[in-house]
Design a protein that fits this description.
The chain is of the alpha/beta class. The chain has 20 helices and 13 strands.
């Protein structure tokens, strides 16, 4: 496109050129490309919130103009449709030359030439532009095909990720249905599934909250649409808006292309917001607005994107206590706590442990391409008596580790759980329930001591801990570490 600008500029006044697409049926306009004499770029800038009078002017242009002629607009600031659809241009100092692009008299878009100064264009310039209308039409058709293919590619990648997660979760959901102790939770999930109300899944870490979320989605009318899972505690605060709501190209350093956020990816489906209690206060405000208004705006964008998304949240935090302490917004809590489902910890349903063990032996052995090993009664009783602070996830990890270490068709559990000379892990109740903040505080202090207080760089504490330096600073600030 830049080469086209350089060529045309030899014959027609030209400083900037845009190619736009009018979607008649969708009542939206998309600016797909822009170029100056020195650089060009694909934009994919979409305007959907088009005022009625602008839409009517666009329809009149589509229905009544001669699509083989170029049109001179020497004062584009007085033309509302151009000013509204192309807000990038400083209209007080530009003239415009507009050429419809059509296929068999069907308008597919326009090419707009802008030149500094007033009254820069005459009829001779319009006639010259008319002669290159066909190459522009072909270029626009190719651009549209490219954008459509890229959109389909992203959609396919999203759907493949969702499908893999859903298949894994479906297997786990089948396991969950076998337990009498989870029958009440599954009954509530079945009641919630056909509705659109928000669901809040409560329970300790590792109890299987994500499995219940996937089960709700699979039993809902949205089961053929995507389910997008988001761990709110794993996203750095500086990236949260971009991850959830998406961003426009150029919105910030590194935003080299438009990106759909998790809410857009979940359109017509379900979004699962895990660890909702980890959201910062400002992020809680933005999430509340999305739930209330059912629309988002991408970072760096202006277009409001309507949403049709079912929201399921989960947390291991006591949100009511956090509300009382001012750490979680009360209005957001009321919005997401419409239909709560409690998942009991595994220590309160010890009768489930033998069945879980057998299921995990088969599942994990199959993942490793091995025959499922057995477990003796003594080791099974050891697992039943253990308190499982990490719940089902910890049990699954222990079984997986036991299979890896097994040298025959029988796994051994005792060395993995009981203290020994080689394994000095203490599973006493006192150590098991040390506050998480205290553990994180001690770990950070140890890392800072080892790096002599250095945070950044290859020898810094952030690298040692495997996290981003900004994330480490945020945690240090939160814990009062200086």
């Amino acid at each position: 496109m830049t080469r086209a600008v350089r060529y045309i500029a030899d014959f027609i006044p030209l400083d900037e050129m845009y190619i736009g697409v009018y979607h008649r049926n969708k009542e939206e306009h998309r600016v797909v490309a822009r170029s100056t004499y020195s650089e060009g770029e694909l934009l994919n800038y979409i305007r959907r919130d088009i005022p009625k009078r602008v839409l009517q002017a666009m329809r009149d242009f589509d229905e009544h103009v001669d699509k083989q002629r170029a049109y001179i607009v020497n004062d584009p600031s007085s033309e509302l449709p151009i000013r509204f659809l192309y807000p990038f241009v400083e209209y007080g100092t530009y003239s415009c030359l507009m050429m419809p692009l059509s296929v068999e008299d069907y308008l597919i878009g326009v090419v707009l030439l802008f030149a500094h100064g007033r009254d820069r264009y005459v009829r001779e310039h319009a006639e010259l532009l008319e002669k290159v209308a066909q190459p522009f039409t072909i270029a626009l058709s190719n651009t549209l095909e490219h954008l459509e293919l890229m959109s389909l590619k992203r959609q396919l990648e999203d759907e493949n990720r969702c499908l893999r997660k859903e298949r894994s979760a479906a297997k786990k959901a089948e396991i969950v249905r076998k337990f009498n102790s989870l029958r009440s939770a599954m009954e509530l999930a079945e009641l919630a599934a056909p509705l659109t109300n928000p669901v809040l899944i409560l329970g300790e870490t590792g109890t299987g909250k994500e499995v219940i979320a996937y089960a709700i989605h699979q039993m809902s009318p949205r089961k053929d649409e995507p389910l997008i899972a988001v761990n709110c505690g794993a996203i750095p605060p500086t990236l949260l808006d971009s991850e959830l709501f998406g961003h426009e190209k150029g919105a910030f350093t590194g935003a080299t292309a438009n990106k759909r956020g998790c809410f857009e990816q979940a359109q017509h489906g379900t979004i699962f917001l895990d660890e909702i209690g980890e959201l910062a206060a400002d992020a809680q405000v933005r999430l509340l607005r999305v739930i209330q208004e059912k629309e988002i705006v991408r970072v760096g964008g202006e277009t409001r994107i309507p949403l049709d998304v079912r929201i399921i949240c989960a947390t291991n935090c006591d949100l009511e206590a956090m509300v009382s302490e001012g750490r979680f917004r009360q209005d957001l809590f009321f919005r997401i706590n419409v239909f709560p489902i409690w998942i009991p910890p595994i220590r309160e349903r010890r009768d489930d442990i033998p069945l879980l063990v057998k299921e995990f032996l088969v599942l994990k052995a199959a993942e490793m391409g091995r025959t499922a090993p057995s477990i003796n009664d003594r080791d099974m009783q050891l697992l039943v008596n253990y308190d499982w602070p990490g719940n089902v996830r910890e049990l699954q990890n222990i079984i997986e580790r036991a299979i890896i270490l097994s040298k025959n068709d029988m796994i051994e559990i005792a060395p993995l759980l009981l203290p020994s000379k080689d394994n000095k892990t203490n599973y006493s109740r006192e150590e098991r329930f040390v506050r998480l903040d205290e553990c994180i505080n001690n770990t950070i202090l140890s890392a800072l001591k080892k790096t002599n207080g250095r945070i950044n760089g290859p020898n810094g504490a952030a690298v040692l801990l495997g996290i981003n330096p900004s994330t480490l600073r945020n945690k240090m600030k939160k814990l009062g570490i200086k």
